[in-house]
Specification:
The chain has 353 residues and is of the alpha+beta class. It has eleven helices and 13 strands. The chain has two domains: 125 residues, Phosphorylase Kinase, domain 1 (2-Layer Sandwich); 221 residues, Aminoglycoside phosphotransferase (APH), C-terminal lobe (Aminoglycoside 3'-phosphotransferase, Chain: A, domain 2), CATH 3.90.1200. 46% of the residues lie in helices and 16% in strands. A hairpin with a 3-residue loop joins strand 1 and strand 2. Helix 9 crosses helix 10.
Length: 353
Protein backbone atom coordinates (compact mmCIF):
# COMPACT_ATOMS: atom_id res chain seq x y z
CA UNK A 1 0.00 0.00 0.00
CA UNK A 2 1.67 3.20 -1.14
CA UNK A 3 1.25 6.49 0.66
CA UNK A 4 1.16 9.50 -1.65
CA UNK A 5 4.32 8.24 -3.33
CA UNK A 6 6.49 8.89 -0.26
CA UNK A 7 6.97 5.34 1.00
CA UNK A 8 5.20 2.05 1.46
CA UNK A 9 3.45 2.21 4.86
CA UNK A 10 3.46 -1.57 5.10
CA UNK A 11 7.29 -1.61 4.97
CA UNK A 12 8.92 -1.06 8.36
CA UNK A 13 12.29 -0.41 6.73
CA UNK A 14 10.94 2.31 4.43
CA UNK A 15 8.99 3.83 7.30
CA UNK A 16 12.06 4.03 9.55
CA UNK A 17 14.14 5.57 6.76
CA UNK A 18 11.47 8.16 6.06
CA UNK A 19 11.24 9.15 9.73
CA UNK A 20 15.00 9.51 10.15
CA UNK A 21 15.32 11.62 7.00
CA UNK A 22 12.19 13.75 7.28
CA UNK A 23 11.03 14.12 10.89
CA UNK A 24 13.26 16.55 12.78
CA UNK A 25 14.58 15.48 16.17
CA UNK A 26 15.27 18.19 18.76
CA UNK A 27 17.48 17.36 21.72
CA UNK A 28 15.27 19.07 24.29
CA UNK A 29 13.49 17.98 27.46
CA UNK A 30 10.19 19.60 28.43
CA UNK A 31 9.77 20.20 32.16
CA UNK A 32 6.13 19.62 33.11
CA UNK A 33 6.21 22.44 35.68
CA UNK A 34 7.21 24.86 32.92
CA UNK A 35 5.06 23.64 30.04
CA UNK A 36 4.33 26.94 28.31
CA UNK A 37 7.89 28.25 28.16
CA UNK A 38 9.17 24.87 27.00
CA UNK A 39 6.45 24.60 24.35
CA UNK A 40 7.32 28.07 23.07
CA UNK A 41 10.99 27.14 22.85
CA UNK A 42 10.18 23.98 20.90
CA UNK A 43 7.88 25.77 18.46
CA UNK A 44 10.53 28.38 17.66
CA UNK A 45 13.20 25.73 17.18
CA UNK A 46 11.00 23.65 14.92
CA UNK A 47 9.72 26.63 12.91
CA UNK A 48 12.65 29.10 13.00
CA UNK A 49 10.88 31.73 10.85
CA UNK A 50 8.09 32.10 13.43
CA UNK A 51 8.09 35.06 15.82
CA UNK A 52 7.42 34.73 19.53
CA UNK A 53 4.92 37.60 19.58
CA UNK A 54 2.79 35.86 16.92
CA UNK A 55 2.23 32.73 18.98
CA UNK A 56 -0.65 31.90 21.29
CA UNK A 57 -0.45 28.94 23.67
CA UNK A 58 -3.31 27.01 25.24
CA UNK A 59 -3.24 23.88 27.36
CA UNK A 60 -5.62 21.10 26.32
CA UNK A 61 -6.89 19.17 29.32
CA UNK A 62 -9.06 16.40 27.87
CA UNK A 63 -6.39 13.69 28.16
CA UNK A 64 -5.35 11.75 31.25
CA UNK A 65 -2.05 10.27 30.03
CA UNK A 66 0.01 13.15 28.57
CA UNK A 67 0.26 16.94 28.79
CA UNK A 68 -0.73 18.82 25.67
CA UNK A 69 -0.17 22.39 24.49
CA UNK A 70 -1.82 23.90 21.43
CA UNK A 71 0.41 26.51 19.79
CA UNK A 72 -1.21 28.81 17.22
CA UNK A 73 0.61 31.13 14.86
CA UNK A 74 -2.06 33.84 14.70
CA UNK A 75 -0.97 35.62 11.48
CA UNK A 76 -0.79 32.28 9.67
CA UNK A 77 -3.92 30.83 11.26
CA UNK A 78 -1.93 27.63 11.75
CA UNK A 79 -1.83 25.44 14.87
CA UNK A 80 0.38 22.64 16.13
CA UNK A 81 0.15 20.39 19.16
CA UNK A 82 3.09 19.83 21.49
CA UNK A 83 2.62 16.69 23.52
CA UNK A 84 4.77 15.94 26.54
CA UNK A 85 4.67 12.31 27.53
CA UNK A 86 3.19 11.45 30.91
CA UNK A 87 5.52 10.50 33.74
CA UNK A 88 6.97 7.02 33.11
CA UNK A 89 4.23 6.37 30.54
CA UNK A 90 6.70 4.27 28.55
CA UNK A 91 5.76 1.49 30.98
CA UNK A 92 2.38 1.45 29.23
CA UNK A 93 3.12 2.81 25.76
CA UNK A 94 5.51 1.88 22.95
CA UNK A 95 6.55 5.38 21.90
CA UNK A 96 8.43 4.18 18.84
CA UNK A 97 5.32 2.41 17.59
CA UNK A 98 3.32 5.57 18.22
CA UNK A 99 5.61 7.51 15.87
CA UNK A 100 5.28 4.77 13.26
CA UNK A 101 1.51 5.02 13.65
CA UNK A 102 1.31 8.78 13.18
CA UNK A 103 3.58 8.87 10.13
CA UNK A 104 1.82 5.92 8.48
CA UNK A 105 -1.69 7.16 9.21
CA UNK A 106 -0.80 10.67 8.10
CA UNK A 107 0.38 9.36 4.75
CA UNK A 108 -3.06 7.75 4.36
CA UNK A 109 -4.85 10.98 5.38
CA UNK A 110 -6.04 9.37 8.61
CA UNK A 111 -4.07 11.59 10.98
CA UNK A 112 -2.36 15.00 11.02
CA UNK A 113 1.35 15.12 10.12
CA UNK A 114 4.18 14.61 12.58
CA UNK A 115 6.38 17.73 12.54
CA UNK A 116 9.02 16.87 15.09
CA UNK A 117 10.26 14.77 17.98
CA UNK A 118 11.97 15.76 21.20
CA UNK A 119 13.35 13.88 24.20
CA UNK A 120 10.04 13.40 25.98
CA UNK A 121 7.41 14.11 23.38
CA UNK A 122 6.31 14.93 19.86
CA UNK A 123 4.97 17.85 17.82
CA UNK A 124 2.20 17.19 15.32
CA UNK A 125 -0.65 18.80 13.43
CA UNK A 126 -3.90 20.11 14.82
CA UNK A 127 -7.21 18.86 13.41
CA UNK A 128 -9.87 21.54 13.10
CA UNK A 129 -13.19 20.63 14.64
CA UNK A 130 -14.93 19.97 17.91
CA UNK A 131 -14.04 17.22 20.33
CA UNK A 132 -16.87 14.72 20.78
CA UNK A 133 -18.84 14.77 24.00
CA UNK A 134 -20.05 11.59 25.68
CA UNK A 135 -23.50 12.35 24.23
CA UNK A 136 -22.06 12.54 20.71
CA UNK A 137 -21.04 8.88 20.90
CA UNK A 138 -24.71 7.88 20.77
CA UNK A 139 -25.84 10.63 18.39
CA UNK A 140 -27.73 8.96 15.50
CA UNK A 141 -25.68 10.75 12.83
CA UNK A 142 -22.26 11.28 14.40
CA UNK A 143 -22.03 7.75 15.80
CA UNK A 144 -22.36 6.28 12.31
CA UNK A 145 -19.60 8.55 11.04
CA UNK A 146 -17.39 7.03 13.74
CA UNK A 147 -18.43 3.53 12.65
CA UNK A 148 -17.50 4.28 9.05
CA UNK A 149 -14.14 5.78 10.00
CA UNK A 150 -13.28 2.82 12.18
CA UNK A 151 -14.06 0.51 9.26
CA UNK A 152 -11.55 2.48 7.18
CA UNK A 153 -8.94 2.10 9.92
CA UNK A 154 -9.54 -1.63 10.08
CA UNK A 155 -8.91 -1.90 6.36
CA UNK A 156 -5.45 -0.32 6.45
CA UNK A 157 -2.15 -2.16 6.12
CA UNK A 158 0.29 -0.53 8.54
CA UNK A 159 3.89 -1.59 9.14
CA UNK A 160 4.47 -3.83 12.12
CA UNK A 161 3.91 -7.35 13.32
CA UNK A 162 0.41 -8.32 12.29
CA UNK A 163 -0.27 -10.36 15.39
CA UNK A 164 -2.59 -9.29 18.20
CA UNK A 165 -0.69 -8.16 21.27
CA UNK A 166 -3.73 -7.68 23.51
CA UNK A 167 -3.02 -10.53 25.88
CA UNK A 168 0.74 -9.99 25.72
CA UNK A 169 0.08 -6.44 26.91
CA UNK A 170 -2.37 -7.53 29.60
CA UNK A 171 0.11 -10.05 31.01
CA UNK A 172 2.89 -7.46 30.95
CA UNK A 173 0.71 -4.93 32.74
CA UNK A 174 -0.42 -7.46 35.32
CA UNK A 175 3.23 -8.18 36.14
CA UNK A 176 3.75 -4.44 36.57
CA UNK A 177 0.76 -4.26 38.90
CA UNK A 178 2.10 -7.20 40.91
CA UNK A 179 5.44 -5.42 41.28
CA UNK A 180 3.90 -2.03 42.09
CA UNK A 181 1.41 -3.10 44.75
CA UNK A 182 3.33 -5.45 46.99
CA UNK A 183 1.42 -5.41 50.32
CA UNK A 184 -0.39 -2.17 49.45
CA UNK A 185 -3.43 -1.92 51.76
CA UNK A 186 -5.51 0.27 49.44
CA UNK A 187 -4.95 -2.15 46.58
CA UNK A 188 -5.63 -5.24 48.66
CA UNK A 189 -8.94 -3.76 49.78
CA UNK A 190 -10.25 -4.15 46.23
CA UNK A 191 -7.98 -6.60 44.41
CA UNK A 192 -6.30 -9.97 44.70
CA UNK A 193 -3.33 -10.67 42.42
CA UNK A 194 -3.90 -14.42 42.33
CA UNK A 195 -7.53 -13.90 41.37
CA UNK A 196 -6.57 -11.41 38.63
CA UNK A 197 -4.05 -13.87 37.18
CA UNK A 198 -6.60 -16.68 37.08
CA UNK A 199 -9.22 -14.35 35.63
CA UNK A 200 -6.89 -13.24 32.82
CA UNK A 201 -6.03 -16.82 31.89
CA UNK A 202 -9.71 -17.71 31.80
CA UNK A 203 -10.64 -14.63 29.78
CA UNK A 204 -7.98 -15.33 27.16
CA UNK A 205 -9.19 -18.91 26.79
CA UNK A 206 -12.74 -17.68 26.21
CA UNK A 207 -11.91 -14.88 23.78
CA UNK A 208 -9.50 -16.74 21.51
CA UNK A 209 -12.41 -19.07 20.72
CA UNK A 210 -14.32 -16.11 19.26
CA UNK A 211 -11.94 -15.94 16.26
CA UNK A 212 -12.13 -12.18 16.01
CA UNK A 213 -10.26 -10.89 12.93
CA UNK A 214 -6.95 -9.14 13.54
CA UNK A 215 -6.85 -5.60 12.14
CA UNK A 216 -4.99 -2.37 12.74
CA UNK A 217 -6.90 -0.93 15.71
CA UNK A 218 -7.08 2.40 17.49
CA UNK A 219 -7.65 0.72 20.87
CA UNK A 220 -8.56 3.95 22.69
CA UNK A 221 -11.63 5.30 20.95
CA UNK A 222 -13.13 7.32 23.77
CA UNK A 223 -15.13 10.49 23.14
CA UNK A 224 -12.12 12.80 23.61
CA UNK A 225 -10.27 11.04 20.78
CA UNK A 226 -12.89 11.79 18.15
CA UNK A 227 -13.02 15.16 16.37
CA UNK A 228 -16.12 16.27 14.46
CA UNK A 229 -15.82 18.74 11.60
CA UNK A 230 -19.24 20.34 11.20
CA UNK A 231 -18.65 21.89 7.77
CA UNK A 232 -17.23 18.70 6.25
CA UNK A 233 -19.64 16.44 8.16
CA UNK A 234 -16.82 14.04 8.98
CA UNK A 235 -14.99 12.67 11.98
CA UNK A 236 -11.30 12.08 12.59
CA UNK A 237 -9.60 10.03 15.27
CA UNK A 238 -6.71 11.40 17.31
CA UNK A 239 -4.16 10.02 19.82
CA UNK A 240 -2.55 6.92 18.35
CA UNK A 241 -0.33 5.84 21.23
CA UNK A 242 -2.21 2.59 21.91
CA UNK A 243 -2.85 1.79 18.24
CA UNK A 244 -1.51 -1.52 16.98
CA UNK A 245 -2.69 -4.76 15.43
CA UNK A 246 -5.34 -6.27 17.66
CA UNK A 247 -8.72 -7.94 17.60
CA UNK A 248 -11.50 -6.16 15.75
CA UNK A 249 -13.87 -7.11 18.55
CA UNK A 250 -11.71 -5.41 21.14
CA UNK A 251 -11.56 -2.12 19.24
CA UNK A 252 -15.33 -1.93 18.81
CA UNK A 253 -16.17 -3.36 22.23
CA UNK A 254 -13.80 -0.88 23.83
CA UNK A 255 -15.49 1.97 21.95
CA UNK A 256 -18.88 0.89 23.28
CA UNK A 257 -17.50 0.80 26.82
CA UNK A 258 -16.37 4.40 26.38
CA UNK A 259 -20.00 5.50 26.05
CA UNK A 260 -19.88 5.51 29.86
CA UNK A 261 -17.27 8.30 29.94
CA UNK A 262 -14.57 8.74 32.57
CA UNK A 263 -17.31 8.68 35.21
CA UNK A 264 -18.00 5.05 34.25
CA UNK A 265 -21.78 5.48 34.02
CA UNK A 266 -22.49 2.11 32.44
CA UNK A 267 -26.19 2.82 32.16
CA UNK A 268 -24.99 4.58 28.98
CA UNK A 269 -23.55 1.39 27.48
CA UNK A 270 -25.33 1.07 24.10
CA UNK A 271 -28.26 -1.32 23.96
CA UNK A 272 -28.67 -4.10 21.41
CA UNK A 273 -30.79 -2.03 19.02
CA UNK A 274 -28.21 0.76 18.85
CA UNK A 275 -25.33 -1.66 18.51
CA UNK A 276 -27.00 -3.56 15.69
CA UNK A 277 -27.47 -0.37 13.68
CA UNK A 278 -23.91 0.78 14.39
CA UNK A 279 -22.47 -2.62 13.47
CA UNK A 280 -24.49 -2.79 10.26
CA UNK A 281 -23.10 0.59 9.22
CA UNK A 282 -19.58 -0.53 10.13
CA UNK A 283 -19.80 -3.77 8.15
CA UNK A 284 -21.33 -2.07 5.12
CA UNK A 285 -18.46 0.42 5.13
CA UNK A 286 -15.86 -2.32 5.59
CA UNK A 287 -17.36 -4.55 2.88
CA UNK A 288 -18.26 -1.81 0.42
CA UNK A 289 -19.23 -4.21 -2.38
CA UNK A 290 -22.25 -5.66 -0.56
CA UNK A 291 -24.58 -5.18 2.39
CA UNK A 292 -23.98 -7.10 5.59
CA UNK A 293 -26.36 -9.95 6.38
CA UNK A 294 -28.34 -10.15 9.61
CA UNK A 295 -26.30 -13.21 10.58
CA UNK A 296 -23.00 -11.34 10.13
CA UNK A 297 -24.26 -8.50 12.29
CA UNK A 298 -25.41 -10.90 15.01
CA UNK A 299 -22.04 -12.66 15.01
CA UNK A 300 -20.24 -9.33 15.33
CA UNK A 301 -22.61 -8.26 18.12
CA UNK A 302 -21.64 -11.30 20.17
CA UNK A 303 -17.97 -10.77 19.34
CA UNK A 304 -17.73 -7.14 20.45
CA UNK A 305 -19.64 -7.62 23.68
CA UNK A 306 -17.42 -10.50 24.70
CA UNK A 307 -14.35 -8.39 23.95
CA UNK A 308 -15.86 -5.52 25.95
CA UNK A 309 -14.80 -7.60 28.96
CA UNK A 310 -11.19 -7.37 27.80
CA UNK A 311 -11.61 -3.60 27.59
CA UNK A 312 -12.53 -3.45 31.27
CA UNK A 313 -9.55 -5.63 32.16
CA UNK A 314 -7.21 -3.55 29.97
CA UNK A 315 -8.15 -0.14 31.34
CA UNK A 316 -8.54 -1.50 34.85
CA UNK A 317 -4.89 -2.60 34.86
CA UNK A 318 -3.93 0.65 33.13
CA UNK A 319 -5.60 2.61 35.91
CA UNK A 320 -3.76 0.66 38.59
CA UNK A 321 -0.41 1.36 36.93
CA UNK A 322 -1.19 5.03 36.35
CA UNK A 323 -2.20 5.42 40.00
CA UNK A 324 1.43 4.69 40.87
CA UNK A 325 3.10 6.68 38.08
CA UNK A 326 1.07 9.64 36.86
CA UNK A 327 1.25 13.20 38.16
CA UNK A 328 -2.01 14.15 36.40
CA UNK A 329 -4.93 15.04 38.67
CA UNK A 330 -7.19 12.03 38.12
CA UNK A 331 -8.36 9.28 40.48
CA UNK A 332 -6.87 6.33 38.62
CA UNK A 333 -7.43 3.87 41.47
CA UNK A 334 -11.15 4.63 41.61
CA UNK A 335 -11.31 4.33 37.82
CA UNK A 336 -9.69 0.88 38.00
CA UNK A 337 -12.12 -0.23 40.70
CA UNK A 338 -15.10 0.82 38.57
CA UNK A 339 -13.76 -0.89 35.44
CA UNK A 340 -13.25 -4.21 37.23
CA UNK A 341 -16.60 -3.88 38.97
CA UNK A 342 -18.29 -3.67 35.57
CA UNK A 343 -16.17 -6.56 34.29
CA UNK A 344 -17.43 -8.91 36.98
CA UNK A 345 -20.98 -7.61 36.67
CA UNK A 346 -21.15 -8.29 32.92
CA UNK A 347 -18.89 -11.32 32.67
CA UNK A 348 -21.47 -14.12 32.70
CA UNK A 349 -23.95 -12.16 30.59
CA UNK A 350 -21.49 -11.39 27.80
CA UNK A 351 -19.70 -14.73 27.73
CA UNK A 352 -23.04 -16.52 27.41
CA UNK A 353 -23.95 -14.67 24.19
Amino acid sequence: MLSNGAFDVSSLEQLETYIQNNIKYIDYFVVSSNLFECALELALRLFPTWKKEDLELEQCKDGITNKLIKCTNKPLGFSILIRTYGNKSEVLIDRKQEIYNIVSLSSLDLSPPLYGRFNNGIVYGFIEGKVFSVADLSDPFKSLLAAKNLAIWHGTDIAGEKKPNLFITLKKWLKEVTKSYDNDEKFLKHFNIEKLNKELISLEQELVKVNSPVTFCHNDLLYANIIYNESAKKVSFIDYEYACYSYRGFDIGNHFCEFAGFECDYSLYPDEKFQMQWLRHYLNAFNSTRDATDEEISILYREVNKFALASHFYWGLWGLIQAQLSDIDFNYMEYAVLRFKEYYKRKDEFLSL
